[in-house]
Amino acid sequence: MTEPYSPPGAASAADIDSEAARHSPAQAQATASTSNSDPHQYASPWPLHGGQGEALLRCLGVDPSSAAGPFVDLSASLNPLGPPTWFGDWLAGAGGHLWRYPDPRQPLARAALAAHHGVAQQQLWLTNGGAEAIHLVAQCHRGGRALIVEPTFGEYARACALNDISVSRIMLQGDDFRLDVDALCQAMTGVDLVFLCRPNNPTGTLARRDDVATLLRHARRVGALLVVDEAFAEFSDEDEGEDEGEDESAFAECSDDAAGDGRCAAQGPLCQWLAPGADTSVDVPLVLLRSLTKFYTLPGLRLGYVMASAARIRALAERQVAWSLNGLAEAVVPELLADGDFAEASRGWLADERDRLCQALRALGLVVPESRANFVLLRLPGAATPQRGEVLLRGLARHAILGRHTHTFRGLDGAWVRLALSTAEVNDRVVEALADIIAAETVAGGSQTPCSGGSA
Ligand SMILES: Cc1ncc(COP(=O)(O)O)c(C=O)c1O
């Protein structure tokens, strides 16, 4: 426990409550910020990201020694199957990548990833995690105007603040976090770039592909750039399955559509829209952000990348700190992509566990939006207050399970909890713990009886 203690206290909860009233999910219109500082992030005593267990426990006022056994951390959304079993051996023999400078052209990783996605090498650039990709995109639009689809990952707002980009926001709607495409198109006027997370952190929801096609056409019309963060795309099943049976002409249509002739892109991963045949000079106003850290459980290695037009990639690469991508990260990418067994096992695990866990959570009466990611968002039915979110988080912590608080997510404001999907055994433990917490709440006569009314 080395970090300064930030008390959980009622005072901060009250502040957050008043913010919640101003930014409830029901608020459809984009709200322009007058200042770039974001009280949701900077004034909050809560940790800004998942994976900060000690800080979270301090905020919750839970003594780690009071918990039932060793903690399982579900506050960061990492694949429980990773890293791949060969990684330790590979690392032991990979010293040669550390005692020389990495090649700044990133040739191994770029070639492997470009081939994997079917884009040209000039359309892809690796970054120090997906987080650096977000900040590099923002640097390319310094002093501009951005629109952020909220509630979402806080680094978009942070990158905008650091680059004097003024921010307006549009909220996903209701407890199922629907995207209002018409409202988003309207709000795009006068905007330089739009941040859309897909699947979205923290809701897990996936904007429909045809909606994204509509947004892209509109972005082109109004001169905006659509930035789609696909950090969790490997978990969304979309790159798989839905492309099956697709022929070359469907690819051509997607490309032409993205380039603006109005045809609808119906199938396949979004990166197809960047690859209009061999002609990499066509400037589709689309930037795709990716991360390998979550799927391969290598967050400390820092592995992200961007796919965009060759011109945008050049502009972005020029702004990157030299050797930002370390030699180990570059060298391991082809090995990761070649491991089809790991990818297949991970997708099998996800297919089994996500629906099973969501159903079990809903059977407890919890509100659980449809997730297409490797995490689920949930809250108690009835009033959505930060206090009730903390009841869940604190109860989980006592069962030695760390969840992700949502105090720093605009519009969620602490009422919800995000949990990473884990192995069947851990997921069962989560369900049991939540059943206990709900039962205790009911016996204690909490402001609601969570299980009685089904989902709200
Ligand atoms: C939506 C989203 N994008 C990007 C990132 C950054 O991931 P990394 O920098 O570890 O690749 C995260 C991390 O949680 C995220 O949730």
Task: Please give a structural write-up.
This protein has 2 domains: 156 residues, Aspartate Aminotransferase, domain 1 (Alpha-Beta Complex); 238 residues, Type I PLP-dependent aspartate aminotransferase-like (Major domain) (Aspartate Aminotransferase, domain 2). It is 38% helix and 11% strand. It has 15 helices and 13 strands. The relative contact order is 0.17. The site of pyridoxal-5'-phosphate has 12 residues, from helix 6.
Brief rundown of the structure:
Helices cover 38% and strands 11% of the residues.
Question: What does the secondary structure layout of this molecule look like, with pairings?
Answer:
Elements lengths: L9 H13 L8 E2 L6 H4 L10 H8 L11 E2 L13 H6 L14 H11 L6 E4 L1 H11 L5 E6 L4 H8 L3 E6 L9 H7 L5 E5 L11 H14 L2 E5 L18 H14 L24 E6 L12 E4 L2 H10 L7 H12 L1 H24 L11 E4 L7 H13 L2 E2 L1 E2 L11 E4 L3 H20 L13
Parallel strand pairs: 2-11, 4-5, 4-6, 6-7, 7-8
Antiparallel strand pairs: 1-5, 3-9, 8-9, 10-13, 12-13
Helix pairs in contact: 5-12, 6-7, 9-10, 13-15, 14-15
Bound molecules: pyridoxal-5'-phosphate.
The site of pyridoxal-5'-phosphate (PLP) has 12 residues, from helix 6.
